Automatic annotation (TrEMBL), chain A:
Transmembrane segment boundaries: 18-41, 53-73
Keyword Hydrolase set for record: no
Stretches assigned to the Sodium symporter small subunit domain: 9-85
Keywords (A to Z) from UniProt: Membrane, Transmembrane, Transmembrane helix
Protein name listed in UniProt: DUF4212 domain-containing protein
Entries under InterPro entries matching the protein: Na_symporter_ssu
Domain of life: Bacteria
Species: Marinobacter vinifirmus
Highest classification ranks of the organism: Bacteria, Pseudomonadati, Pseudomonadota, Gammaproteobacteria, Pseudomonadales
Length: 87, 352
């Protein structure tokens, strides 16, 4: 059996697409909503302060958790699809 | 029972537990010693990573940093958790896939160069030693309080205990010891936070409590806090920063640093499959987030509590008399002056 019996190129493409998509959300929730875009979200009130503050101290962390689980689930699926998962 | 006896009982009890676990999970092979035989469940691994991560900085000082700096110090919250996203997507699965014990082995094989491997070893040692210096200083401080000894002796006691269970159990022993440590740490951290939150806002979940209504004033807690600190001439707690670029770069450097820590990376070698390495990144962040979602609540509530303790009649009235200050503030002052006097006063045992 050769090392490249699966479609290595498309596997890598799917891998990169997933990572880029996830990292865009990662950056948007931390550097975006919590820091750079905070003035734009100042109108949205959350418990005595604004949405940007909530993202900085709670929301970003919650998003990171969801992101890692989504990535793990999706990537393990892609592994199976291309037949490179471990039994 | 005196406070010291209670301390001894609990600290000694947890040491015995850790050493007991190390003996129970004794390493029997090279693979056991370095990567716990590669058979750790992702949830267990996540908890062990959580205990690895909730060290001196997160556990002892982070809430204080946020209390002092308010919004500006959210960098620590985002930085020290956001790094796990990078770790879980860009590093951990690939290193696990490679199937060696350590990162330098990966670097050496990947670049076909023993020199590259040597450079990786040197980087690893520099990063680890720098990290350990901070951790051991923290352990020294914590132990000197519990056991009422000097910080240096506290540090030595901590080092000896860790050495015993690390050598006995290897990575396998450490993994299960850290699961026990995680449980002890998170219970110790969240119980007071839950009760502070209940008392101030009536909400038992601190992370929600900090965005709820302050029971006493009827205002949102953070609005009340902003009002109190600005009355006293401080910046608003939730005030935005002037230099956004600075905050972005600071957060980014904390994230990259988090993703690169050797003692966290090696944990991803201890699970059976690449798929498990991916899952354990998520579990690690869940367990870490229990502390990181609570810390900002502890910070804002402690800041409010500090201000209302010193100004019980409101910020327009006089603060409390210096002699009337509560015990814990008086205690802080005494410890500080002891420290300035060179610690001669803090030797509870007669010299032998």
């Amino acid at each position: 059996m050769s090392g490249h019996s699966y479609d290595a190129e498309n596997y890598w493409k799917a891998n990169l697409r997933l990572i880029f998509g996830s990292l865009i959300i990662w950056g948007l929730c931390s550097y975006g909503f919590a820091i750079l875009l905070r003035p734009m979200l100042a109108g949205i009130e959350v418990g005595g302060t604004d949405l940007g503050f909530w993202f900085a101290q709670q929301g970003s962390i919650l998003t990171f958790i969801v992101l890692i689980f989504f990535y793990a689930w999706r990537m393990n699926k892609i592994d199976e699809q291309f037949g490179v998962h471990e039994e | 029972m005196s406070q010291f006896a209670i301390n001894l009982l609990f600290v000694g009890g947890s040491f015995l537990l850790y050493i007991g676990i190390a003996i129970w999970a004794k390493a029997g092979s090279t693979s056991d010693f370095y990567v716990a035989g590669g058979g750790v469940h992702p949830v267990t691994n996540g908890m062990a990573i959580g205990a690895d991560w909730m060290s001196a900085a997160s556990f002892i000082s982070m809430a204080g940093l946020i209390a002092a700096g308010g919004y500006a110090n959210s960098t620590f919250l985002m930085g020290w958790t956001g790094g796990y996203v990078l770790l879980a997507m860009l590093l951990a699965p690939y290193l696990r896939k490679f199937g060696k014990f350590t990162v330098p082995e990966f670097i050496g094989d990947r670049y076909y160069s023993p020199n590259a491997r040597l450079v990786a070893v040197i980087c690893l040692i520099v990063a680890s030693v720098t990290y350990v210096i901070g951790q051991m200083a923290g352990a020294g401080v914590a132990f000197s309080r519990f056991l009422e000894v000097e910080a240096t002796n506290g540090l030595i006691i901590a080092a000896v205990v860790v050495f015993i269970y690390a050598v006995l159990g290897g990575m396998k022993g450490i993994t299960y010891t850290q699961v026990a440590q995680y449980c002890v740490l998170i219970v110790a951290y969240t119980i007071p936070a839950v009760f502070i939150s209940l008392q101030l806002t009536g909400n038992p979940i601190p992370g929600l409590g900090m965005f709820s209504t302050h029971t006493e004033s009827g205002m949102p807690l953070l609005a009340k806090l902003n009002q109190v600190v600005t009355d006293l001439g401080f910046r608003e707690y939730t005030a935005d920063v002037d230099n956004k670029l600075n905050m972005v770069l600071f957060t980014l450097s904390l994230m990259i640093g988090t993703a690169g820590l050797p003692h966290v990376i090696i944990r991803f070698f201890t699970v059976p499959k690449v798929a498990d390495a991916r899952w354990s990144g998520g579990w690690a962040l869940v367990f870490i987030a229990l502390l990181y979602l609570t810390a900002p609540a502890v910070a804002s509530m402690a800041r409010l509590n500090l201000m209302t303790t010193i100004y019980p009649e409101g910020t327009a009235a006089q603060p409390i008399e210096y002699d009337q200050r509560p015990g814990w503030i008086a205690h802080l002052g005494r410890d500080r002056s002891d420290h300035l006097r060179g610690q001669e006063q803090r030797r509870p045992y007669p010299a032998v």
